[in-house]
Amino acid sequence: MKRLIVLLAVIGLLTIGGRAQGSSTPDCRNCNQVYGGIPLFRTIDGALASDSLVVLESTNFIVGYSEDRMNPLWVSYRVCPVTPEGSAPSFGWRLDTRTSSRVSDTDYRYTGYQRGHMAPKATIFHCYGDNATRDTFVLTNACPQTPEFNNGPWKALEELVRRRYGLLYEGVWVTTGPIFDDCNGRTLLVKDEGHEDWCQKPVEVPDAFFKIIIDLQDGVPRALAFIINHDQGYGYGEGTTSTERLSVFLTSINEIESLTGLDFFWALENELEATLEASVADSMWLATP
Question: The domain spanning residue 139 has which CATH number?
Fold first, then answer.
């Protein structure tokens, strides 16, 4: 465990140093995918939690995966100002042989839930290409999501980050994942009545989802943090833009930490981390979508 903590600390410090020293637009194909240190999972008393959380590296995103919940607890990636034409291809979902609790594509069938990308296929495609997109179709990069949520506010937020923030701010860092309310009990994927005899793994359904977006301005980080309930839609009120609709979900990083047990940006200087995590953005960074 001590060696793991040291390794995570080194990765976090290299991430900060590699970005802050650059003065020109970075080549994001060689950028670190996490800002401020790989998120740590802590217990209520602040101690590092059990080793049921495993860190899985892909070329263009990193996953902190929970063997207990059979979900990623966090996924981090970099959105770059690279926009090839065309639509992102789709690939067949596959299990991740690096985990012991192996979720397969059939575990989702006939449940009514979609396999919700955490590192989005469209974002990874437009930044890194076809081969990188294929990597997003591994089930350690997916959480159960209702179609209304996945194709509603979640998709709108992903597209805003990719189409605007990643381009206008020369790349941003994103950390995203599920929130589980244990007071509600564990809601699991369940087959419909016609397929009750199918083997079913205890894949937990999140109660909400978070997303944290980091941008550097003159070397100083600023953040947009969101929490969206899984059963939450948002109104398409006449005359409102997507940024205005999404702004109702703005929160603080501290709030996300309190609900998830995750410790973000611990490798930053203490005062900078405290300021970044306590603030709630007054509004979105852009006035129009």
Answer: 3.40.570.10
